[in-house]
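Continuing the batch. This is chain 6 of the set; chains 1 through 5 are on the previous pages. Same settings as before, nothing changed between runs. Recording input and output for traceability.
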Amino acid sequence: MSDPSKHKSIAQLGPDALKSTFDIESVRKRLHRRGKMKLADLLLDQTFVAGIGNKYKSEILFLRKLWPFKIANNLSQSEEQQLLEEIPCVLKIGYVSAGRTRPRQQEEEASNKWEFRHWVFEGEDIHVGYVVQRLSLIGNQVLV
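Output for chain 6:
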Protein backbone atom coordinates (compact mmCIF):
# COMPACT_ATOMS: atom_id res chain seq x y z
CA MET A 1 0.00 0.00 0.00
CA SER A 2 1.59 3.29 -1.08
CA ASP A 3 -0.42 5.61 1.21
CA PRO A 4 -0.12 4.56 4.89
CA SER A 5 -3.05 6.81 5.86
CA LYS A 6 -5.35 4.50 3.89
CA HIS A 7 -4.41 1.47 6.01
CA LYS A 8 -7.40 0.34 8.09
CA SER A 9 -5.60 0.78 11.45
CA ILE A 10 -4.46 4.32 10.63
CA ALA A 11 -7.79 5.33 9.09
CA GLN A 12 -9.59 4.43 12.34
CA LEU A 13 -7.49 6.77 14.48
CA GLY A 14 -9.23 9.74 16.03
CA PRO A 15 -8.23 13.33 15.32
CA ASP A 16 -4.70 14.49 16.05
CA ALA A 17 -4.81 17.08 18.86
CA LEU A 18 -1.51 18.56 17.68
CA LYS A 19 -2.95 19.62 14.32
CA SER A 20 -4.24 23.14 13.83
CA THR A 21 -7.41 21.60 12.40
CA PHE A 22 -8.29 19.90 15.74
CA ASP A 23 -12.01 20.59 16.13
CA ILE A 24 -13.38 20.47 19.68
CA GLU A 25 -16.98 20.19 18.44
CA SER A 26 -16.27 17.04 16.41
CA VAL A 27 -14.40 15.59 19.42
CA ARG A 28 -17.39 16.46 21.60
CA LYS A 29 -19.57 14.32 19.30
CA ARG A 30 -17.07 11.47 19.62
CA LEU A 31 -17.23 11.84 23.41
CA HIS A 32 -21.03 11.65 23.38
CA ARG A 33 -20.95 8.50 21.21
CA ARG A 34 -18.65 6.93 23.82
CA GLY A 35 -20.55 8.39 26.77
CA LYS A 36 -20.71 5.15 28.78
CA MET A 37 -16.91 4.91 29.00
CA LYS A 38 -14.85 5.84 32.03
CA LEU A 39 -12.79 8.97 31.36
CA ALA A 40 -9.47 7.13 31.72
CA ASP A 41 -10.54 4.50 29.18
CA LEU A 42 -11.95 7.14 26.86
CA LEU A 43 -8.73 9.14 26.79
CA LEU A 44 -6.69 6.01 26.01
CA ASP A 45 -9.03 5.06 23.14
CA GLN A 46 -7.03 6.04 20.06
CA THR A 47 -10.22 6.20 17.97
CA PHE A 48 -11.43 9.03 20.25
CA VAL A 49 -8.34 11.24 20.01
CA ALA A 50 -5.04 9.89 18.70
CA GLY A 51 -1.86 10.29 20.69
CA ILE A 52 -3.01 10.30 24.32
CA GLY A 53 -0.96 7.79 26.26
CA ASN A 54 -1.06 6.85 29.92
CA LYS A 55 1.09 9.77 31.09
CA TYR A 56 -0.89 12.41 29.19
CA LYS A 57 -4.20 10.84 30.25
CA SER A 58 -3.16 11.15 33.90
CA GLU A 59 -1.93 14.71 33.41
CA ILE A 60 -5.12 15.85 31.63
CA LEU A 61 -7.42 14.37 34.26
CA PHE A 62 -5.29 15.67 37.14
CA LEU A 63 -5.15 19.21 35.79
CA ARG A 64 -8.93 19.25 35.29
CA LYS A 65 -9.45 17.56 38.71
CA LEU A 66 -11.52 14.82 37.07
CA TRP A 67 -11.88 11.36 38.61
CA PRO A 68 -10.60 8.82 36.03
CA PHE A 69 -13.45 6.41 36.78
CA LYS A 70 -16.16 9.01 36.13
CA ILE A 71 -18.46 8.06 33.26
CA ALA A 72 -18.15 10.49 30.35
CA ASN A 73 -21.94 11.08 30.22
CA ASN A 74 -21.80 12.31 33.83
CA LEU A 75 -19.56 15.30 33.05
CA SER A 76 -21.14 18.68 33.56
CA GLN A 77 -21.07 20.98 30.52
CA SER A 78 -18.28 22.97 32.15
CA GLU A 79 -16.21 19.84 32.92
CA GLU A 80 -16.72 18.55 29.39
CA GLN A 81 -15.61 21.83 27.84
CA GLN A 82 -12.56 22.10 30.09
CA LEU A 83 -11.58 18.49 29.35
CA LEU A 84 -11.86 18.99 25.60
CA GLU A 85 -9.81 22.20 25.77
CA GLU A 86 -7.16 20.59 27.98
CA ILE A 87 -6.43 17.72 25.59
CA PRO A 88 -4.64 19.73 22.87
CA CYS A 89 -3.03 22.02 25.45
CA VAL A 90 -1.33 19.22 27.39
CA LEU A 91 -0.28 17.36 24.25
CA LYS A 92 1.18 20.50 22.66
CA ILE A 93 3.08 21.42 25.83
CA GLY A 94 4.45 17.88 25.99
CA TYR A 95 5.43 17.97 22.32
CA VAL A 96 7.37 21.24 22.47
CA SER A 97 8.88 20.40 25.88
CA ALA A 98 10.25 16.92 25.10
CA GLY A 99 7.50 15.24 27.12
CA ARG A 100 7.52 17.66 30.03
CA THR A 101 4.06 18.90 31.01
CA ARG A 102 4.93 21.17 33.93
CA PRO A 103 6.96 24.33 33.30
CA ARG A 104 10.42 24.39 34.83
CA GLN A 105 10.54 26.50 38.01
CA GLN A 106 13.46 28.85 38.65
CA GLU A 107 14.24 27.28 42.03
CA GLU A 108 13.96 23.75 40.63
CA GLU A 109 17.02 21.58 40.69
CA ALA A 110 18.51 20.74 37.32
CA SER A 111 17.49 17.06 37.56
CA ASN A 112 14.98 15.66 35.16
CA LYS A 113 13.04 13.66 37.78
CA TRP A 114 9.44 12.65 37.05
CA GLU A 115 8.05 14.82 39.88
CA PHE A 116 9.64 17.92 38.39
CA ARG A 117 8.60 17.17 34.82
CA HIS A 118 4.92 16.41 35.43
CA TRP A 119 2.06 17.66 37.56
CA VAL A 120 1.05 14.28 38.87
CA PHE A 121 3.18 11.59 40.50
CA GLU A 122 2.88 9.10 43.33
CA GLY A 123 2.93 10.63 46.81
CA GLU A 124 2.03 14.13 47.89
CA ASP A 125 1.99 16.64 45.10
CA ILE A 126 4.02 19.56 46.40
CA HIS A 127 2.88 21.80 43.57
CA VAL A 128 -0.85 21.86 44.28
CA GLY A 129 -1.11 20.07 47.64
CA TYR A 130 -3.12 17.01 46.57
CA VAL A 131 -2.44 13.47 47.64
CA VAL A 132 -1.92 11.37 44.54
CA GLN A 133 -2.86 7.70 44.42
CA ARG A 134 -1.76 5.00 42.00
CA LEU A 135 -4.67 2.86 40.79
CA SER A 136 -4.91 0.13 38.17
CA LEU A 137 -7.31 0.29 35.25
CA ILE A 138 -7.34 -2.56 32.72
CA GLY A 139 -3.59 -3.09 32.99
CA ASN A 140 -2.72 0.61 32.96
CA GLN A 141 -1.81 2.72 35.92
CA VAL A 142 -3.79 5.84 36.72
CA LEU A 143 -2.43 8.56 38.92
CA VAL A 144 -5.17 10.54 40.67
